[in-house]
Design a protein that fits this description.
CATH class of the largest domain: Mainly Alpha
Distance between the termini: 80 Å
Keywords: Disulfide bond, G-protein coupled receptor, Glycoprotein, Membrane, Receptor, Transducer, Transmembrane, Transmembrane helix
CATH architecture of the largest domain: Up-down Bundle
Subcellular location: Membrane
Structural class: mainly alpha
Number of strands: 4
Protein name: G-protein coupled receptors family 1 profile domain-containing protein
GO molecular function: G protein-coupled receptor activity
InterPro entries: GPCR_opsins (IPR050125), GPCR_Rhodpsn (IPR000276), GPCR_Rhodpsn_7TM (IPR017452), Peropsin (IPR002962)
Largest sheet: 2 strands, antiparallel
Helix content: 55-70%
């Protein structure tokens, strides 16, 4: 008990990502930001609602696409891809943060934290890149049938593959030393290490921000801006 209490006391004062309790053998996430039990309960309720609603909503979309052949157009493959990635977050990510919030601490150790951070980063980037590809497909379709064929499954399938490969390129590096995945906020969720001010970590965050947020966002703004411009010209 003395060793266990000393270990927990040292863990509470340290700034390390995980501390191992000598008494019970599990890894417990630590964080400089804490929530009250009521705060954790509120977060758990929100996560439970978001996870359940997101799972059922995206499952319904996938079921409709499978049931009605008319919906299986090439461009809608991108919508299926977005629904699939969002549903995977609800299945492979949200349950762990929900359970952690109900207990006020991370429950599945360091490897579980790394998995959670990787999975949420991967699926999140897939959704954003798919939205960018979708906007480009609609923009290219507007240019005319000579440049874009709406019945071309191969081209859209290539776009889906690119969204996953591109996401892997940017979600895998923390597993091999370029930044890392660890606990964030009150210690009940995990993500990229946003706080460590080292060249290694800052360089990854900058690249992630530019290539996985700014670039796709600019593509979306450009493509839909051109679409709106074309609609205004038609109305005039």
């Amino acid at each position: 008990m003395i060793v266990s209490n000393l270990s927990l006391s040292t863990c509470a004062r340290s700034e390390s990502v995980f501390c191992s309790s000598a008494g019970d053998g599990y890894l417990e996430a630590t964080s400089n930001h804490t929530l009250s039990p009521t705060g954790h309960l509120v977060v758990a309720v929100c996560l439970g609602f978001i996870g359940t609603f997101g799972f059922l909503n995206n499952l319904l979309v996938l079921v409709l696409f499978c049931r009605y052949k008319l919906l299986r157009s090439p461009i809608n493959l991108l919508l299926i891809n977005i629904s699939l990635s969002d549903m995977l977050v609800c299945v492979l990510g949200t349950p762990f943060s929900f359970a952690a919030s109900t207990q006020g601490r991370w429950l599945i150790g360091e490897r579980g934290c790394v998995w959670y951070g990787f999975a949420n980063t991967l699926f999140g980037i897939v959704s954003l890149i798919s939205l960018a590809v979708l906007s480009y497909e609609r923009y290219s379709t507007m240019l005319g049938a000579t440049e874009a064929d709406s019945t071309n499954y191969r081209k859209v399938g290539f776009g889906v593959a690119v969204s996953w490969l591109y996401s892997l390129v940017w979600s895998v590096p923390p597993l091999f030393g370029w930044s890392r995945y660890g606990p964030e906020g009150p210690g009940t969720t995990c993500s990229v290490n946003w706080t460590t001010k080292t060249a290694n970590n800052i360089s990854y965050i900058i690249c992630l921000f530019v290539f996985c947020l700014v670039v796709p966002f600019m593509v979306i703004v450009f493509c839909y801006g051109k679409l709106l411009q074309a609609i205004k010209q038609v109305r005039q």
